Amino acid sequence: MRNCSPVTILTYHSIADVPPSGSPYRGLFVSPKNFQRQMKWLSRLGYIGLSLREIHPYILGQKRGKVVGITFDDGFCNVHENALSVLRDLGFSSTCFFVSGQIGGFNKWDEPKGIPYTRCMSDEKIREWANAGNEIGAHTVDHVHLTEVGLSEAFDQISNSRKRLEEISNQRVTSFSYPYGDVSPDIRNIVERSGFKLAVTLRKAQASSRHDPLLLPRRNIRHSDGWIAACRKTIFG
């Protein structure tokens, strides 16, 4: 096994104005201004933002460089509107994980929690995202807790999301994000059988060659994280 430095993979959800104090799950929002500042400071510090697919050789030690993984869960329109141009201007790439059953829809899975209504990218926006050099990843069909459904349904949720996204994007979809970070050995194996090569969790750590490529850890960026916190998480994990 090659000796290599661990790599941080950052997680974002909504790049939009942060809801008022007391709103449910407001930590999942990062303001456009804050996101732009975080990306610019990472660039100034010499980091290159990369998609999961592109950063994996660095995790394995096959490549060396100052890199950070940039990922977005859920596939919201506000990511297309407020993050795409920032990434493009800096020469960064990223991975966005889409809920295939809500393409052109909204965050239906969040309704019971009172999280604000948020639009999801359409087919056209997904293609624009991919054509800008970003990776398309899968996040199930309906954003379910995979360990709370039967294995047959879990297989359908995982494999069908991949098929649908490949039809839309006309590119291979080989990266997966477990909704809610919810994973078990059986679910991990279904992800592998469904054709995915990489998958990310919500476990807090830096990724290294010792990690299972289908159980890679990430660091979540919250609404309260300024550029200093984002840089600290990138450098120290």
Automatic annotation (TrEMBL):
Top-rank taxon: Bacteria
GO MF annotation terms: hydrolase activity, acting on carbon-nitrogen (but not peptide) bonds
Main location: secreted
Keyword Coiled coil: no
GO biological process: one example: carbohydrate metabolic process
Compartments in which it is found: Secreted
Protein keywords: Signal
Residues annotated as domain NodB homology: 66-237
Gene Ontology, cellular component aspect: extracellular region
UniProt xrefs under InterPro entries: Glyco_hydro/deAcase_b/a-brl (IPR011330), NODB_dom (IPR002509), Polysacch_Deacetylase (IPR051398)
Gene3D superfamilies per UniProt: Glycoside hydrolase/deacetylase
Its job: Is involved in generating a small heat-stable compound (Nod), an acylated oligomer of N-acetylglucosamine, that stimulates mitosis in various plant protoplasts.
Family label: Belongs to the polysaccharide deacetylase family.
Protein name as annotated: Chitooligosaccharide deacetylase
Organism for this UniProt entry: Phyllobacterium phragmitis
